[in-house]
Design a protein that fits this description.
Elements: E1 4-5, H1 11-20, H2 26-37, H3 51-60, E2 61-62, E3 67-74, E4 79-85, E5 91-99, E6 102-106, E7 110-112, E8 127-130, H4 133-147, E9 153-156, H5 166-177, E10 189-193, H6 197-206, E11 211-215, H7 221-227, H8 236-250, E12 255-260, H9 268-277, E13 284-289, H10 302-311, E14 319-321
Parallel strand pairs: 1-2, 6-9, 9-10, 10-11, 11-12, 12-13, 13-14
Antiparallel strand pairs: 3-4, 4-5, 5-6, 7-8
Helix pairs in contact: 1-2, 4-5, 6-8
Length: 347
């Protein structure tokens, strides 16, 4: 009988697992605590279970399957890029970022990405498959175990489009949030999307409390489609309508992310377009100077980034300029491809 991987199971599912195998439901709660809170790597570590029960569970199941294939620390930014090998040999990346009292992990939700955003390294890889909830949350467990530190923030901004792996992303976020496990507050978990509109409406209707970030990158449909091809299906006006619906349902402000690319979307007309588009929308705006990844695109100068921020004024939204950390180890925004992760060969 093939063993089941328990990483990714909810507390209720682990309780049922215990009952299904002739044990009391509280054994499932013990498993939950050992997997997510105490970061156990083996049933032998679960010392409040009898040796016979540990052996029984060992015969039935496994815990986690991620392996650290490579670890790249950045002396310049106190960040670490992790290359993880999955059970099927596929590779994904996560980035740990330490800033004062914040310890953030940028997690991946897919192997590769199907959206083919023209400025993103991951988009060049193509799409292989969705990650399971267990593979997503195991990134958190592995990094906490490796660093010996408890994470304070999670951002779903690694490889993949989170809303194209909706169920697994949401389940993994709840596992990260659970008070008996990793216990990261919902408002410290950010789910980012380029704007998969049906999923946005579903997210709003389901009432999730995690923060929402929208990758905008241009206020104009034609220009945005060149950067994010899927936006041909989900135009800017429809995206804004969906965001307004989300705000009405959740009463939370979204964050709009805007990667600034030299000569592409950093003109005065772009800033004025953003200002007009977001008029009357309580939100936050993060300007992210592009990290050179694709040779066709360049990062604007610091002076021009500041100028673009001034062009946005007056806008009724806090504006932050986020200089991504980890670009010295190819771990910054848009760079997650992995030097061992290869794009599919053309046939």
């Amino acid at each position: 009988m093939e063993k089941v991987n328990l990483t990714g199971f909810t507390q209720e599912e682990l309780e049922q697992f215990a009952v299904d195998h002739g044990e009391k439901s509280f054994r499932g709660r013990q498993l939950f605590s050992w997997i997510y809170q105490r970061k156990a790597t083996d049933f032998a570590e679960m010392t409040d279970l009898s040796k016979a029960l540990r052996n029984k569970f060992q015969d039935l199941a496994t815990i986690g399957q991620l392996q650290i294939a490579e670890k790249s620390p950045s002396p310049a930014s106190d960040s670490i890029k992790y290359l993880f090998r999955l059970h099927d040999g596929n590779l994904i990346e996560s980035v740990f970022i330490s800033e004062r009292n914040r310890r953030t992990l940028c997690v991946s939700s897919q192997v590769g990405c199907a959206l083919k955003c023209t400025f993103c390294a991951t988009g060049k890889l193509g799409f292989k498959r969705n990650l399971t909830a267990g593979e997503i949350v195991d990134q958190v467990i592995c990094v906490e175990r490796d660093t010996g530190l408890e994470l304070t923030n999670i951002v779903f901004m690694g490889m993949g489009e989170p809303f194209q792996n909706y169920e697994n992303v949401i389940q993994s976020a709840y596992l990260m949030k659970h008070e008996n496990g990793i216990a990261i507050g919902a408002r410290h978990i950010v789910i980012s999307t380029v704007g998969i509109i049906p999923a946005l409406y579903r997210y709003a209707d389901e009432g999730h409390r995690f923060k929402l970030a929208i990758s905008l990158h241009s206020p104009f449909n034609d220009d945005r489609q060149k950067l994010i091809p899927v936006s041909a299906k989900y135009d800017v006006d429809k995206l804004v309508d969906a965001v307004k619906y989300y705000m009405k349902k959740s009463r939370h402000r979204p964050t709009f992310q805007y990667v600034l690319i030299d000569g592409v979307n950093d003109r005065m007309r772009d800033a004025h377009g953003v200002r007009k588009l977001l008029q009357g929308i309580p939100c936050k705006v993060n300007l992210i100077p592009y990290n050179p990844t694709v040779p066709a695109f360049k990062r604007p100068s610091r002076e021009h980034v500041d100028q673009f921020a001034r062009w946005l004024m007056p806008i009724h939204a806090p504006i932050s300029v986020r200089w991504s950390k980890g670009d010295d180890i190819e771990a910054a925004c848009g760079q997650l491809a992995g030097k061992f992760v290869k794009a599919p060969e053309m046939v």
